[in-house]
Amino acid sequence: MTILLTNDDGYTSEGIRILAEAVRAQGHDAWIFAPDEERSGQSHAMTLRHPLKLRKHGEREYSCSGTPADCVILASHGVLPCKPDMVISGINRGPNLGTDLIYSGTAAAARQASMIGLPGIALSLAEFKEPFRYQALAATVAGRLDELVGLWHEDIFININAPNAEDHIRFEFKEGTPSRRVYKDVLKVFEGPDGHSYCFYTDGRVETIAQRGSDEDAVLQGYASITKVLVYPVAEAEA
Asked: Rounded to 5 degrees, what are φ and ψ at 4?
């Protein structure tokens, strides 16, 4: 199977490289095509007002000046020498649980894949601090890829989060619903000598509303959580 690997942490990130090794070890043809630098929090943004710059770094490795969604769009339109059979986005440095999906560039790449008829899987490590141990999640997903593709259909993409476990761990999957997360953002404002005010997000905190059966609940129990996320909005049923 030909697999496009992308992310929002940039093509040099450790997570995407460990994932590529694990997927190739299972006999798949993995191509890295990811942003040239970090594009976290850009959701499903696309580049519409200026051209995208592409660069080849190796036989199966490219970067793009755009967003994760841009990478999937370009790859599906023949920019790469081959068309992918599926897209895996990640492994993200940090969780994409519940409400995070609204902001996540990692999730957006998997969503874009599903929108064009390709299985899309988003992978995230539910950890904010080093060391980030990607190997367990990479090996689990690569070894059970057929199973995961079997869960996919064109109306959804698959979102997976896993604990920061030791390399030898092989996760069991547990399906959950998206949790609700509340962001306690902290903003600092500085007055610059040029007459502009400069605003910076600093270290805030995230609170998750406890809910049994949620994706975060699964991760806290030591599972790799699986959430089937609808790609398209669903209209409210008529009374």
From this structure: -90, 125
Spatial CA neighbour of 88 closest among 66, 118, 59: 118
Q: How far apart are CA 74 and CA 56, in angstroms?
A: 14
Question: How far apart (Å, rounded) are the C-alpha atoms in residues 217 and 55?
Answer: 41
- Say what the pTM is: 0.93
Residue spans per domain, the chain: 2-177+212-230
Reported as a single tens digit per residue, the pLDDT across 84-100 is 999 999 999 999 999 99
User: What's the distance, Cα to Cα, between the start and end of the chain in Å?
Assistant: 45
Q: What is the pLDDT of residues 54-78, one digit of tens each?
A: 999 999 999 999 999 999 999 999 8
Distance separating alpha carbons of residues 52 and 32, to the nearest angstrom: 17
Tell me the C-alpha distance between 128 and 48, whole Å.
32
Which is more confidently placed, 73 or 209?
73
Q: How confident is the model at residue 166 (pLDDT cuts 50, 70, 90)?
A: very high
CATH hierarchy code of domain 2-177+212-230: 3.40.1210.10
State the virtual CA torsion across 91, 92, 98, 100 in degrees, nearest 10. Answer: -150
Sorted by sequence, the CB contacts under 8 Å of residue 232 that are 6+ apart come out as 155
